[in-house]
Design brief:
Number of domains: 2
Distance between the termini: 38 Å
Strand content: over 45%
Order of helices and strands: EEEEEEEHEEEHH
Radius of gyration: 18 Å
Shape: elongated
CATH superfamily of the largest domain: Nucleoside Triphosphate Pyrophosphohydrolase
Structural class: alpha+beta
């Protein structure tokens, strides 16, 4: 049985540049409970496919986990920006790529137990290359590899990033 939780009240605990944190009191069917919630403006992630079986990824250090991660190009949605506009911007900034064909692959929640971040997933095809233009605080390596190799890495447990895992799996369907 699914029970909808209704918010009784909410208190903002933290208001940052990327996230806001709230402590909410909710009513359940039989009692009240507390939920700590991270609010996020959303993001977009891209699986860029070159038509020859290759995909583009980035590797960058992620401070919260203390190591570099292999990821699909992605980033947060700016105010007034659509998810597709964000995906196009991030692909260009991080990889220097533009695409003629875009396919929406649906949304995903990064961690719905405590966070409302939704990441909109896209595939980009019919690519054109130019120089990347990363943000001034963004240091990353661009990795072009066969999608099959990325899938093998995923199957071996070597890609812990969830959005990238989903995009690789969806990419296998696109390449069929």
């Amino acid at each position: 049985m699914v029970v909808k939780e209704e918010r009784i009240n909410s208190a903002e605990i933290y208001n940052g540049h990327i996230i806001k944190v709230f402590k909410d009191e909710v009513s359940l069917e039989n009692k009240k409970a507390v939920r700590e919630v991270v609010r996020h403006q959303g993001a977009a992630a891209v699986l860029a496919l070159d038509g020859e079986g290759n995909a583009f990824f980035v590797e960058q250090f992620r401070y919260p986990v203390g190591k570099a991660l292999f990821e699909a190009p992605a980033g947060k949605i700016d105010p007034g920006e659509t998810p597709l506009e964000c995906a196009k911007r991030e692909l260009f900034e991080e990889c220097g790529l533009t695409a003629k064909k875009w396919t929406e692959l649906g949304p995903m929640y990064s961690s719905p137990g405590f966070c409302d971040e939704v990441i909109y997933l896209f595939a980009a095809e019919e690519l054109s290359q130019s120089a990347p233009n990363p943000d001034e605080d963004e240091f990353l390596d661009i990795i072009k590899m066969p999608l099959e190799e990325a899938y093998s890495r995923l199957a071996e447990g070597k890609i812990p990033d969830a959005k990238t895992q989903i995009l690789i799996l969806r990419g296998k369907e696109i390449m069929k």
